Amino acid sequence: MEAKLIAPCGMNCGICVSYLAMKYDLKKQGFRKSYCPGCLPRRKNCTYMKKQCDLLGKGLVRFCYECVDFPCKRLKALNQRYCTKYHMSMIENLEFLIENGMERFLEKEEERWRCPKCGEVICCHNGLCMNCSLDKLRKNKKYRWDEE
């Protein structure tokens, strides 16, 4: 995990399906998935929030928690969707960063999203490792987390 892959909204781009598709070059393996190197590496500041926030849109803050409106209505809505569908909270990520710093956050993320089979990264959007769980994804292209 890399600090440059932590978006201002608290999203860890390193666990995103589009980033992992690029990392493992899934197009060469027959998947039709868009590639993305992350919000900051492609100079987007934050894909989700920049159009609703002048501070992010102009790159004036590194993280949403630097804003007096943190967490704003838009971030709360995005966070709710990610909590419900993808088992992660951007607001919790940002609060952890405030309290513990980037190094500890990255350590926690590496542990949390590590595949127990091969040690690579598990995708937050579908709960699969793009290194060793591609057969499961091939069987169901719209695969989402198993019901728990």
Commentary on this structure:
The protein is mainly α and 148 residues long. It is 36% helix and 0% strand.
Summarize the structure.
36% of the residues lie in helices and 0% in strands. The protein is an all-alpha fold.
Provide key terms for this protein.
5 helices; mainly alpha; 148 residues
SSE layout:
Layout: H1 17-23, H2 54-57, H3 73-86, H4 90-112, H5 134-139
Q: Could you describe the largest sheet, including whether it forms a barrel?
A: none
Determine the mean pLDDT: 87
Oligomer: single chain
Strand content: under 5%
Q: Count the beta strands.
A: 0
Shape: globular
Give the count of helical stretches.
5
Work out the radius of gyration. 15 Å
Binned, the helix content reads 25-40%
Number of domains: 1
Structural class label: mainly alpha
The unreliable regions are: none
- Span from first to last CA? 27 Å
Summarize the helix and strand pattern as letters: HHHHH
